[in-house]
Every structure is written in structure tokens, then in C-alpha cells.
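Recall the central idea of this unit: under ordinary conditions, the amino acid sequence of a chain determines the structure it adopts. In this exercise we apply that idea directly, starting from the sequence alone.
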Amino acid sequence: MKELLLIVLAYLIGSIPTALIVSKKFFGIDIRDYGSGNMGATNTFRVLGSKYGTLVMVIDILKGLVAASLYGFIPFYLHNELERTNFMIGLGLAAMLGHIFPLFAGFKGGKGVATLFGMILAVQPVIAVSCTGVFLLVLYLTRYVSLSSILAAVALPICVLWIWNEHEILYRAFALVVAGMVVFTHQKNIGRILRGVESRIPILKHRDRRKARRRHDQ
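Accordingly, the structure predicted from this sequence is:
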């Protein structure tokens, strides 16, 4: 019964519509009416800029981190690593579902990547940091948040199954399912990237201007 209550609480935490709150409070708009219509960090970067996109991303990560850490309310999980990992995954998935289908925003949310990352950060920080490295590298090279998210998600099963060779079956299956799910939910982004029309976030513009000047000088 306690586990069920915590899972419901994790879902409610995930349902906090961060991007919607930020867009309405600071701009007086509904973020879902702009850009891709998605209520996540990527669309917030695209519509509201890097400052507010970063704010939304950080809070959404914290949603997953806090939700996965709710296991601490049940003493049993403090001393049972395997059961704790499984329960943390369940809590994190509940938060991710809350983000994708938020109770507080008409069940129309984001894609849950940032919230998912927060959960992984709670379960296995080293793997989370590795995926973050992939995300930041791809973001630096391309300025596509969507592509960065996709490749970071693909890096998750690579880290879990091969680099760190985690033996927990549920964890391995979870990593594979998550990677597939992120790729699936980003189909439209992949199509826009292939057509060359995907929006880039407004960072590193000075780098692009330098490159443009060098090409012009040549």
C-alpha cells in the first residue's frame, strides 16, 4: 500500500507542468500553442530561449530525481539494493508518465527525457554523467536538443549493457525500452533534422558568426 501511494505521488510530481508554468508566468502564453506544441525543455529552448529552456530542463530533471528518491520513506528499501533499484525505476517511470501525461495540464505534456535523466541520476549517477557527456557534446556540435536527447538515450543501454555491464535484468530491459521509446517519440524531430528544418537552440551564436565570417573572407 505504501509503495502504491509513493508511485501515485511520483506521478503527481512528474505532472507538474514546468514549461507551462514558466511560459504563462514570464510570457503570458501557453507553450503548447507555439513551436512543436510540446511541453518540454526542447520546445521551451526553441520558443522562449536558452535561459528559460535551461530553467525548465533543470526543474524537469529534479522531478525525476526527487520522484526516484521517494523510496527513502520505506525503511525496507534502505537496506535492500536490488529491491531499491527496482522500486526507484518504478518511481521514475511513474514521474516520466506524469510528465508525458500530466494530470495538471490536460494530459498533454512533454516527452519526458529530462525527467528520465533525473531518475537515472538517482539510480546510477555514473551512467547519468556519461549520458550527460554525450548530450552536451552533441549539443555543442549541432545545437539540436532533440538529436542530443536521442543520442544520450541510445548511450544509456550501451553504458548499462556493455560498458558497466549491469547484471540486474530489469535495469537492462529498462535501458533498452527507454532508448527505443525516446527514438520513437522523436520521430518528427528526426524527420525535421533529415530535411534540415529542425530548429537549433540559441546558444554558441558567436561561434557560428565567426565561422560565417571566415567563410566570407575566403
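Residues 2-217 form one domain.
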